[in-house]
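OP here, attaching both records as promised.
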Amino acid sequence: MELRKLKSRAMAQKNLPLAVAVEAGIAAVSGAATGEVARSAQDLTQSLHDTLWSWGVSEKKAESKLRFFKDGTYVINNDPPSAWNAVDGTTMTFANGAKLKFAADGTRFTGTTPNGLRMGKKLPPDQ
């Protein structure tokens, strides 16, 4: 809970490096508690296949939907597909240079994009 408060303060102050570092700490703690840690880039790739995520400046202001596909592409809303690549068990990059860091439990992410900090959470597949 304290880590989430620290992350909120960092985001309010637009301190992206601190917010991402705190999110990694939250992910490490969550992963240790749940045991659901993606161990490799391949694990992350497989866990993202055909998943739908909220996408926005915060989880509460998630104005877009992000979908990852098995062929290594993603779409945001109705934009044309673009490429993504898993770097390790919790990190992936987009072709435009954006980088997402997923929580160890695989339900949330924090990212840096050309447009600034973005956050998201996994949505049920039927949305």
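Record two, same layout:
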Amino acid sequence: MQFDRSELNDDVNKLLSSTANEICVGQNWDLEESVGEQRRKQFESCALRATQLSEVAAAHFDQYVQGARRGHLSTTFDKVLNANALMSATLEDNQKIIRLERIDQLLENDGGLTFERLLAALSPRDNDALAALTDEFQQFAGERPAFAAFKAEVDDVLKQPDWLQQVVCRLGLLHLMPQTPGEVFHFALMEYTVGDVRQQAQIQNVTSPFALATVVESRCSPAFFPAPKGAVFGFTVDLGAAGGGAQEFLHARFDYSPKHVLKLAKWQGPTDVPDVVQCRQRHVNALRLRSGRANYGEKHWPMSAK
């Protein structure tokens, strides 16, 4: 993606010659093909005094993607501004979706809600306790687009004792890995359907509630990887040994109810952080096969890359 603002192009070049994680972020900005001209111009209108992409991206995300209040139309689902990335309306309503939520902040917000109480409530489906959690999600301001995947993409590992770690790796959720010794993260795995999302989106007058994730929504994560233009789905960078990844997409904000809480788990650090650079090189080779774009990313990964 090329910018009109020369300082942003300069920052991409700086990222590409910096640390490993910053190189990954720079590659993402350079590779992005699905952000159209109108959306790019809107992006560049933010933080005009900033010279770093991270500052412009944060300002744009806060103002246009997430927004400060409920009810605004996130540009992620705007038919004009993000036409290149909007997904087909042919998704079947009964397809099951999963999203992994870190819930530590929500537990802190409600002093009477503990992880142990939630675990005890899950099997008998104590809706009062589970509602105490899902109600906290509804207090979040703005219309955040949610990174999600189809349940079928991780169904094979959900019965495993280490399902949480495997889901985090397969979905490329690097930011959800506790790295500090003794640090504990708590999670809820949510399950709902395409039809559930559509039903709520209609109430909010969002007519196209599913989209490919672009670098604009990536929050400058080195574990994100943009899909080639015209792709049906994006694919996660698998951080595990298998390297298969999963189809991923964004959907409009969805308010949970107790029935959507599928699983709960916690993860204590430290975690051995995977080599994201190697994972990405493996990912681009798989993406070339999936997309039929044999030369995709060749600027950064020559065709001889294995």
